[in-house]
Amino acid sequence: MSQAKFDKAVAIVQGLPKDGPIQPSTDEKLFFYANFKQATIGKVNTSRPGLLDFTGKAKWDAWKEVEGKSKEDAQKDYVEKLLEILKKADNEEAKKYIEEIEGAA
User: Fold this and answer.
1) In angstroms, rounded to a whole number, what is the distance separating the alpha carbons of residues 4 and 14?
2) φ/ψ bin of 42: left (φ > 0), alpha (ψ from -120 to 50), beta (otherwise)
3) Exposure of 27 by Cβ count < 10 A (0-12 exposed, 13-18 middle, 19+ buried)?
4) Which of 49, 71, 69, 52 is nearest to 61 (CA)?
5) Less Cβ crowding at N or C end of the chain, within 10 Å?
6) Which H/E stretch holds residue 70?
7) What is the full per-residue pLDDT of the chain (105 aa) written as tens digits?
8) Any idea which fold 3-103 has?
């Protein structure tokens, strides 16, 4: 898995419009978040958010679950998950994104 493919996948996920045809589920968004953090930062480096920060806790817990995964594996899992979502979407926008990822060096 190349850094370029990971970077392209991150750009696509971060650029998906909120009301566009490709909408990752909440669980998929947490998967992307956790693997992005693991690939770019590594081990969880913050304390768990407070009781009422439900989103923060979900994100922290997701990251904590992948702790110990190598940077390379986190990048690979991130790209593979995005490709899986895009292939399921099966529309022109998804096909364009798949080509961009597969074309990244």
Assistant:
1) 15
2) left
3) exposed
4) 49
5) C
6) none
7) 699 999 999 999 999 998 888 999 999 999 999 999 999 999 999 999 999 999 999 999 999 999 999 999 999 999 999 999 999 998 999 999 999 999 987
8) Acyl-CoA Binding Protein (1.20.80)
